[in-house]
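Researcher: Next entry in the queue.
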Amino acid sequence: MSPVVRGSLLGAVLALGVNLVIQLAGWGEEPAGTAYPGPVNSVIYAIVPFVWIGLFAAMGTALFALRARGMMRPARAVGVLLANCALYPVYTLGFSSRALGLAGNGLTAVLAAFAIGMMLERAPRLAPLIVPVIVWVALASIGLVAVMTGRTF
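Model: Structure for this entry, 153 residues:
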């Protein structure tokens, strides 16, 4: 099995595992209409697990492709990003702290930008695999700020 296929599969399996832990722990079980008001936030809330499966698969693909090419420094940056994303439910206290969630989104965006920067130097074709992470956390952050300020989005 090629490193790219292996990375995609392992990334997707990691995302499924994280989503399973979230469900078993009962985190984030507020009804979408009450916790996340507004049409965009309701859609965001509904698709979160599916988006992360794709994002984890893309990060896993980048990680394994970098490792296969012997590019360990950018691979470590992607690995740290993956670990940060996998631990997000834990360090946001099971999604109960919106402030920690917003801080976590900021950290995720910074780590993703750092990984992209490292990849652009040595593996520019792999860098676009990480860009959707920044796009997603930016959208999620806008929605989270809307919830924190009592506005709809």
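Model: Residues 3-148 form one domain.
Researcher: Noted, moving on.
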